[in-house]
Amino acid sequence: MPKENKHSRGRREEKKLKRKRDNGEEEPVSKRQKSEDPADDPEVQILGTDDAIQPDGEEGGTAERPFYGMLEDEEQEYFRRADEMLDLNDFPSPEDRSLFLANVYREAEGKELKIACSQSCSRLMERLILLSTVEQKKKLFEKFAGNFPHLIQHRFSSHCCETLFIQSAPVVTEELTADYKKEDTEEEETKEVATMESLFLQTLDELEGQMTFLLTDRFASHTLRVLLVILSGRPLEKSSTRTLLQSKKKEKITVTGYDSTPTELSLNKRAVPSSFQFAVDKIISDTIATMDQSFIRILATHPTGNPTLQLLLELELINPNSKKDVNADQKTIISALLPDDITTENSESATFVNGILYDAIGSRLLETICAFAPGKLFKQIYRTVFKDRIAAIARNEISSYVAMRVLNRISKEDLEEAVTAINPQILGLVQRNRTMIIKTLIERCQARGVETVSLTASIAAAYDSDPSTLVLKMACIDDISSLNPAPVSITTDGSDPSPTPTTQPKSTPSQLHGSLLAQSMLSIPGPPATLIQKSLLALPHETLLTLATYTTTSHILQTALLPTLSNTIPFRRKIINTLLFPSSPSTTNPILHLALSPTGSHVLDALLTSTCAPTATHTSAPLFILAERIASSLLTHEHELRDSFTGRIVVRNWSLDLFKRRRGDWVKKVKAAGAEAVASLPSSAPTEELPEKKDKKKKKNTWGTDVVDPTKSAIQLAREKFAVEKAMKGANQGGRGNRGSGANAGVVVASK
C-alpha cells in the first residue's frame, strides 16, 4: 500500500514555487502532475487498497482520471490575493463582500475545476462556498456535474466537494419545509432553477456503480461518508458526526469574522425527502450486492474502509424497513458479518466477533454492532461472548471500549452480575488509568437503579481512601505546585496585559479521564457524590484555588457547584467559603485571582449560578448573600478587571455596572438567570430541595391544621403554604390599620 503524504495541503511547496518563479527558474511540473494527473503515470496507485478491483468502464480497462489543466501565473496570483482578502474578510459592508464574491465568480467562470484541483487555490474554492448564496452553490453543482467521481478522488478537490455538500445540506431541509423563498424576479420566472434535492440525486447518479471502489479510496471515502450522513438526515456538527466525517489532522478552512456558529439544522436531525431514504437503501443494497463475504470482512479491519462500513452498517440497522434478522433471505451487511447462529459453539460468527474484539480497527465495527443491533441479536452476542468474560474484556485497552457499549444496553440483572465481576478489577483498572470503563459502569448503575455502595467503596480503596488526596489521585496530579500558572501581568496604561508564557502543563488523557470520572460521581446522589464531596472539602484553600485555575480540574469544581440534588446547600456553602473566603489570610485575593484567570473565570460563572439558584420548593436563593459578597469584592477591583480581557468578561457576566447603579434590578436579573439555569439542567440532575425545611418537624399553621396532608399533591401543598404565609403577612399588616387584607386572605385559604 502506498504511504500517505503526511504534509499539509502544500503551503511550503507553494512558497518554494513562488521563490523559484521570482528567481526566473523553471517550475518543476513533475510533482504537480503526479498529484493532479496520476493517470499520466501508470505506476501511481489511485486505489485505497492494493487488492481492490477498479470499475471497468464502457471504454474497457481502468478508469482514468482526467486532467483539467493548470492555471496561468496571472490567474494564480489573482486568486491567491482573492483568497487572502476573503480570509481577512475586511470589507466595509456585507454588500461590498457580495460584490467582491460576484467578481471572483466572474473571473472563475470556466475555471472552477482547475481551481478545485489546484494545490494553491483549492482553499479559495472552499471559502467561496462558505460565503456563497444558495444560487451560487447550485451553479457550482452544475459546474462540477459529470466530474464528481473524479473530483472526490482528488487530493484537493475532494475537500471542496465535502464543503459544498455540507453547506448545501441545510438548503434541502429549508426547501422541503418551505422555509426557503427565492426572490421573485423576471429572470427566475422564465428560467427554471433546479432544487438542491435534485442536484444531490444527480450527483448520486454519477457515483452509481462505483461505491465499492470508493469505499477504500483514501480521499473519496471521506466524501462518501459526508453524502451518507446528509442523505440520512443525521446532525452535521455534533462531535460524533465530525469524527466520522474527518480526521483530527484535517485543515479547517475558516473566514475571519464569519459567523460559523452551528445552526439548529446542523446540530439536530434534519428532515430529508423520502427520495434520500430510498437513495440510502439503494446505496446499501447495491454495495452489498457487489461484495462477497470475504471482502466485507477485510473491510472490517481496513483503516480506510472500516469507518464507511461502520456508517453503512449503522444506517442498515436503524432503518425500520430493513430486515435485520441474520437469517433473512435478503443479503445484508450484518448477515454477511454474522452469517450463522452465534450461540452455536465454534460458529463462524463467534469466531469473527472474537477476532475483531481485540483489534484496534475492527473493534470499532463491533462497537457499532453492539450499539445498534436488534435486541434479540444483541442478547445472543452478549451471552455468547461477553457475559462470562466481561471482567477480562473490561481490563483490555482496546476491548474495554466495546465493553462500554455493551454495558449501555444490558438489563438490570445482567448489570448487577457485571458489577460483581468487575468490582474486584477496580484496583487494576485504576492503576492502569482505565477510568472510562469505571465511569460507564457507575453511570449505568445509576440509570438502572443498581446499588453503588460496593462499587464506590472499591473506587475509594483503589485511591487509598484518603479524602485529602483522593481527588488529586483521581485527576492524576502528583505535584500540585506544578499546576500554578504564571502570574497575570496588569498594565498601568489601560491596555490589555501582554501575553506571558505560562508554566501550566498540558493536560494528559489520564487527567482528563479522571476528571470525567469525578464529574460523573458528583452527579450521582448517594455514596458516589458523597465520596468526591468529602475529598473536596478536605482540601485546603490553596489547593482548591489551584484546581480552579487548571483547565482539567476546574470542571470538577464547576460540577460541584451545580444546584443539583447531589450537591446540597450545606456542601455548596462550605466549598464556596473554603475557596473564596479562607479563615487564614491569603497572599492573593481569591476572587480577583479567579476573575483574571481564563480558566478560573468559568468557575466564577458557575458560582453565580450556584448562589443565585432557587430551590425546588422556594423561590428564594438560600446562598444569595454569597453572590452579593462576591459582587462587592469584584466591584472593589473594577479597574484591574477592566484592564484584563478575561476580567471584562467577568464584569459583563456578573452585570457589575447594574450592581453598582441599580442594586434592585441586579437582584431581579441574576435571580431570574439562576432560575433559568436550574430549569435548563438535564433531567438526570434534579434540583435540590432545601434540607432545612425537610428536616424540621411539621409546622402548624394559624388555623390549627397540619400543613402536610398525604392525600394532597405537592403542588397543592405548596399553594396552600403560600396562601397561609400571605394570610400571616396580611394579619401582621392588619395590626397597623389594615385588618381587611388579613380577613380576605382567610377567606381565600378557606375557599382553597
TrEMBL record:
Residues 1-69, 487-512, 677-712, 728-752 are annotated as: Disordered. Residues 489-510, 741-752 have a biased composition (Low complexity). It is found in: Nucleus, Nucleolus. GO terms for molecular function: RNA binding. The lineage of its organism: Eukaryota, Fungi, Dikarya, Ascomycota, Pezizomycotina. Keywords: Repeat. RNA-binding nucleolar protein required for pre-rRNA processing. Involved in production of 18S rRNA and assembly of small ribosomal subunit. GO terms for biological process: endonucleolytic cleavage in 5'-ETS of tricistronic rRNA transcript (SSU-rRNA, 5.8S rRNA, LSU-rRNA); endonucleolytic cleavage in ITS1 to separate SSU-rRNA from 5.8S rRNA and LSU-rRNA from tricistronic rRNA transcript (SSU-rRNA, 5.8S rRNA, LSU-rRNA); endonucleolytic cleavage to generate mature 5'-end of SSU-rRNA from (SSU-rRNA, 5.8S rRNA, LSU-rRNA); ribosomal small subunit export from nucleus. The keyword Lipid metabolism does not apply. Residues 1-16, 28-37 have a biased composition (Basic and acidic residues). This is Nucleolar protein 9. One of its GO terms (cellular component) is 90S preribosome. It comes from Mollisia scopiformis (Conifer needle endophyte fungus). PANTHER family: NUCLEOLAR PROTEIN 9.
